[in-house]
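Exam revision sheet. Question 4 asks you to relate a sequence to its structure. Input first:
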Amino acid sequence: MVQILSGKAVAQKLKQDITVEIDILKSKGVIPTLGIVLVGDEEDSLSYANSAKKRCETLGAGCSIFKFPAGINQDDFEKKILELNENRDIHGYIIMKPLPSQINEKRIAEIIDPAKDIDCMTPKNIAKVFAGDITGFSPCTARAVMEILNFYQISVEGKRAVIIGRSMVVGRPLSMMLLKQNATVTICHTRTRDLAKEAKRADILIAAAGKAEMVTKDMVSPGTVVIDVGINFKDGRMVGDVLYEEVEKLASAITPVPGGVGAVTTMVLLKQLVEACRK
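Answer key, structure tokens:
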């Protein structure tokens, strides 16, 4: 029978651990505080920011939302980021994307303080992930996948892990994190020849392509562990990159959507906030 890898259970365990860490810090007079940078009036970003603020408050952490007009120019935005770097009341911050077209995102990533870069935008933290250096911060979604595997005691050592998707947010950094734990990793993408054949070789299949229900039963071997990172909307409902109804019949374990990786990602962000605060 397939094991459902509930992200909610993982998030609950992380919440318990984070709450203990926050209480310890508060006993020393320090309140871990998250900064969320918003540019413009993107409804999804604002909704996420408000949700994250409520989550912080529930755990006893602080959260400040820094909202700037959509027309802010590069120089002024850089000044605001540098001010956040120097703000001792903010221990870590994230910048909601997408940024307006007049903002050079690469330049912004270069000036963020790596010690406050808790979602891994800076070249320094990205380099640390690729070097296997745990002193930096990982992209939260990639780390959420590893948290799920660790929570359910799914060893990746010696296993063939196939990742569908090569983004810098999930696919590429996750490949390095899996390699660090001695998995044999293959990254597939839109130009992979015979994607189904590559996917069927996986002991652990991670779908992070951003395409609704693209992974079907023809791409999965019996007994595969399937991690679905995708969040898509189809016919008014949230679905992953995996056609769940088909694939669950073959998988030994599978994450649902919703209630899988997404449920863990915000808790990973707060875990990295606490880590930033302790440094």
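Marking note for examiners. The mean pLDDT is 97.
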